[in-house]
């Protein structure tokens, strides 16, 4: 069947490959967009002098924007800077915060002229010492600038900048942006202005240097400084917080022999989008200023501690890459993997909806082998699916697969596909329609991906969300799958960005890595769901009692066989309807149940089936206390009108429904408890053909023959004989798919399936329905040959078929067996009259009636129209010779157009018994 489903399976395998290709194309397009020249290190073409052009790349050939992407083996050296508050935010005497209580601050009128000084605060235990040290910080005048070595000359001065810091210090923003550099001095010369030009790569930078006055103010304690700094914490542009003070120093207990200082530095000027702390870029000059000032106090103005520059660490060329497939991996790959769930689910529900599983079970396939075979098949398909998925994803270069350890991926995917298969078995018990199961299955596919991507991932990325709740959510299999894929994607993305490996086994020990807990959850759920699914299958699909695992099995077959149930539950109405032959059959059953052994293959003891009331309708008695015994080699025919309960009886015998009370024994096994063993010796031709559309007739018989333990040459021979017996062997019919069969051909195939493997008991529910006369006669010959060594129960509406095939007949009306016997006995018992028919002209009808009354005074007219009359003549009142003599005499008196004398047919018996039973039921 899977060979014929090859196109479907190929499409299933190609779906993840298509998705991988789609992600790859998107990744290529994204890489193309971000790999444009503006996002790469600058390059130029240099003439080598030989008419050739040599491409040279580097930061010296790059614009400022390109310089970020260049390799920097020798980072630029930048002078140290202080973080200077902007003019509009420098500390003044204002009325909107408490710094106004300090009269030594400048007035706010300086903001209008842009001449506000920069404030530095000082405190300590020794005011004289502290002010002396602070006085040396900005005492050095601005040096002459040598244009060839301008950066080094700048490093000797106390410089600052109002600019914000950058994410890195390879290119300091103070020298790149259009903002002046501040030269900090206690007093600024009039009209001080200086312009500095230097080259950076291919660009020439020009910076203005301006003088900014520094005011050093003493405070009595560090708490007072804290209060000033706190009060001066202001809002700047774009709601950013800034501080009004340049820096503050607490000399604590410092003296000539002890240098102990605490520095407050201005860390409020930083980029909120992820800049480094200010201490890495603007703090070093604060430390160097106070250290040099202390040395100069001790050793003189010529002493200094040289701190010429700061620079970033060397770095390789930066390529902007966005691993798009890893970012979208959790969502898309969740859809790819969970897609297997509806595929498995619909397959299981299809077998359930079309009763193919119960058909296999009725021919000997136990629940254990069915689970093992189905599970192994789904596991093989899923494994091939995932293997192709990973191999193809790795082959086309998706980092999601290449960077993460393949052994971790194997364990994760293997555990999850096993859990998913078990879930499909469990959920299949809730559905009886393939369409409904398909819709729900694919809703789960897309719902799982969307909930994972737009809900669960938010919780994963929220560090404040409790980990216990994360684990609780991962108990839902879809979220545990998403969490595992999310971890793979994060390690792949970071590995691609950092140029390192993805997830390795030792990474599972990382507390931030949720893969270990996911593997544990999936493994435990796999085992739990497997057990629950098998239990639910036994209760729902197999119809076992919910506590079946507590039932003690009988020690041997005879202990099961000898369980008489002699208690009759019939009402008085039923007693009145009892027939002698039915009573005799019941007594026979009771006697057989008391014997230690019997040759009877089937024994039904007070079998009853009642369907409960629904939608206001009363309960339905489908089968009423049926007792029946069938020996080996007998074909028993069940006749009855539609709705009489024949199919319900067959369904109880083949295990489709459980009896409400009573039981039956097949080969000594109780149908209530031992159906699994009964199936091994049973064949069934159901009322409706239960066939696989994709399998041929030969393949059906090969399959069911194997279930009956036929192998090798014996199996081949049995299949060919079966095909020939039902006329499906020649003309290539045996190798056509059953969906191409006509209704009659399917019926013949169903009969062949029921008889293959030499079953000891066979049930045939209207086997000749839809057959042409020739095929029906051929089928009758097959059944007659087959009944020699087995018991057959056959239901039919054809009286001719019943008379031709059945050794005994039972007429079933309103759920109750009305009579039992062979056809001749029933005709003799219920057909004790001849049917006399004569056609004359209408003027002679009265003479015909007189003739009949003379032959039989108790004759009954049953039909009259246009001169044709029909009469029933009791057999005990006439002789056939008298009838012929009377007709010859009548011909001499009037014209007899036609006449006939017939015995009672089985059809007449059936109609009489059915009408009588229905009339008795109505009167009762």
TrEMBL record:
InterPro entries: AAA+_ATPase, ABC2_TM, ABC_transporter-like_ATP-bd, ABC_transporter-like_CS, ABCA, P-loop_NTPase. Residues 602-839 form the ABC transporter domain. It is found in: Membrane. The chain crosses the membrane at residues 331-350, 370-398, 410-428, 440-460, 518-536. One of its GO terms (cellular component) is membrane. It comes from the Eukaryota. Keywords: ATP-binding, Membrane, Nucleotide-binding, Signal, Transmembrane, Transmembrane helix. This is ABC transporter domain-containing protein. It comes from Erythranthe guttata. The lineage of its organism: Eukaryota, Viridiplantae, Streptophyta, Embryophyta, Tracheophyta.
């Amino acid at each position: 069947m899977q060979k014929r489903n090859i196109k479907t399976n190929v499409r299933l395998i190609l779906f993840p490959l298509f998705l991988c290709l789609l992600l790859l194309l998107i990744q290529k397009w994204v890489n193309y967009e971000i790999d444009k020249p503006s996002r790469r290190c600058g390059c130029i073409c240099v003439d080598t002098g030989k008419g050739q052009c040599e491409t040279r790349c580097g930061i010296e050939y790059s614009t400022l924007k390109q310089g970020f992407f260049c390799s920097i083996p020798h980072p630029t050296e930048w002078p140290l800077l202080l973080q200077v508050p902007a003019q509009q935010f420098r500390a003044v005497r204002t009325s909107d915060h408490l710094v106004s209580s300090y009269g030594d601050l400048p007035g706010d009128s300086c903001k209008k002229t842009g001449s506000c000084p920069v404030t530095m605060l000082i405190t300590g235990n020794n005011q004289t010492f502290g002010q002396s040290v602070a006085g040396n910080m900005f005492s050095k005048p601005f040096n002459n600038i040598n244009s060839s070595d301008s950066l080094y000359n700048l490093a000797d001065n106390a410089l600052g900048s109002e600019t914000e810091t950058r994410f890195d210090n390879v290119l300091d923003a103070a020298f790149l942006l259009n903002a002046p550099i501040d030269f900090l001095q206690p007093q600024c010369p009039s009209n001080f202005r200086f312009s500095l030009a230097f080259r950076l790569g291919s660009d020439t930078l020009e910076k203005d240097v301006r003088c900014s006055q520094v005011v050093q103010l003493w405070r009595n304690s560090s708490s007072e400084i804290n209060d000033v700094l706190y009060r001066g914490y202001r809002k700047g542009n774009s709601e950013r917080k800034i501080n009004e003070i340049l820096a503050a120093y607490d000399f604590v207990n410092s003296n000539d022999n002890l240098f102990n200082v605490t520095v407050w530095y201005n860390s409020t000027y930083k980029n909120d989008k992820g800049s480094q702390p200010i201490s890495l870029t603007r703090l070093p000059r604060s430390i160097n200023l106070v250290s040099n000032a202390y040395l100069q106090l001790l050793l003189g103005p010529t002493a200094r501690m040289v701190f010429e520059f700061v620079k970033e660490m060397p770095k390789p060329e930066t390529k902007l890459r966005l691993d798009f497939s890893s970012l979208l991996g959790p969502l898309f790959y969740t859809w790819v993997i969970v897609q297997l769930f509806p595929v498995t689910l619909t397959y299981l529900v299809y077998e359930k909806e079309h009763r193919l599983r119960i058909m296999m079970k009725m021919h000997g396939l136990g629940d254990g082998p069915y689970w093992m075979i189905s599970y192994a098949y789904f596991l093989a398909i899923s494994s091939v699916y995932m293997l192709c998925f990973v191999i193809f994803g790795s082959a086309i270069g998706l980092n999601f697969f290449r960077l993460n350890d393949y052994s971790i991926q194997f364990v994760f995917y293997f555990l999850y596909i096993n859990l998913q298969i078990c879930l499909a078995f469990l959920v299949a018990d809730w559905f009886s329609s393939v369409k409904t199961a398909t819709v729900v299955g694919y809703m789960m596919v897309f719902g799982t991906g969307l909930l994972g991507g737009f809900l669960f991932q938010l919780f994963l990325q929220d560090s404040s969300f409790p980990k216990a709740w994360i684990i609780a959510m991962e108990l839902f299999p879809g979220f545990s799958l998403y969490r595992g894929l999310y971890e793979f994607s994060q390690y792949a993305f970071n590995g691609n960005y950092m140029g390192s490996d993805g997830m390795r086994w030792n990474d599972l020990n990382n507390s931030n890595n949720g893969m270990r807990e996911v593997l544990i959850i999936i493994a435990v759920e796999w085992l739990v769901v497997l057990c629950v699914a098998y239990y639910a299958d036994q209760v729902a699909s197999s119809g076992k009692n919910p506590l079946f695992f507590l039932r003690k099995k009988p020690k041997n077959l005879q202990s099961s066989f000898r369980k008489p149930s002699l208690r009759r539950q019939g009402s008085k109405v039923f007693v009145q309807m009892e027939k002698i032959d039915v009573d005799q059959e019941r007594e026979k059953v009771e006697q057989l149940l008391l014997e230690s052994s019997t040759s009877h293959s089937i024994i039904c003891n007070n079998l009853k089936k009642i369907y409960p009331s629904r939608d206001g309708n009363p309960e339905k008695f489908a089968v009423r206390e049926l007792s029946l015994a069938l020996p080996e080699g007998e074909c028993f025919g069940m006749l009855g009108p539609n709705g009489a309960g024949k199919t319900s009886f067959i369904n109880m015998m083949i295990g489709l429904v459980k009896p409400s009370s009573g039981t039956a024994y097949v080969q000594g096994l109780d149908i209530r408890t031992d159906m699994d063993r009964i199936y091994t010796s049973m064949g069934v031709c159901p009322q409706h053909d239960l066939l696989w559309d994709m399998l041929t007739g030969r393949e059906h018989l090969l399959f069911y023959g194997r279930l009956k333990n036929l192998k090798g040459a014996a199996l081949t021979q049995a299949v060919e004989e079966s095909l020939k017996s039902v006329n499906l062997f020649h003309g290539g019919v045996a190798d056509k798919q059953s969906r191409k069969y006509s209704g009659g051909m399917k019926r013949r195939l169903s009969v062949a399936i029921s008889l293959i493997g030499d079953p000891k008991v066979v049930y045939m529910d209207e086997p000749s329905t839809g057959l042409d006369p020739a095929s029906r006669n051929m089928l009758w010959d097959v059944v007659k040959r087959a009944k020699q060594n087995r018991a057959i129960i056959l239901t039919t509406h054809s009286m001719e078929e019943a008379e031709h095939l059945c050794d005994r007949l039972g007429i079933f009306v309103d759920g109750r067996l009305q009579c039992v016997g062979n056809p001749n006995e029933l005709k003799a018992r219920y057909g004790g009259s001849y049917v006399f028919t004569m056609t004359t002209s209408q003027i002679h009808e009265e003479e015909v009636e007189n003739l009949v009354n003379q032959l039989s005074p108790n004759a009954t007219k049953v039909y009259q129209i246009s001169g044709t009359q029909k009469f029933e003549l009791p057999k005990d009142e006439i002789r056939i010779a008298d009838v012929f003599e009377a007709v010859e005499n009548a011909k001499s008196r009037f014209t007899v157009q036609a006449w006939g004398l017939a015995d009672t047919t089985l059809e007449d018996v059936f109609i009489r018994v059915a009408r009588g039973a229905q009339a008795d039921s109505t009167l009762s």
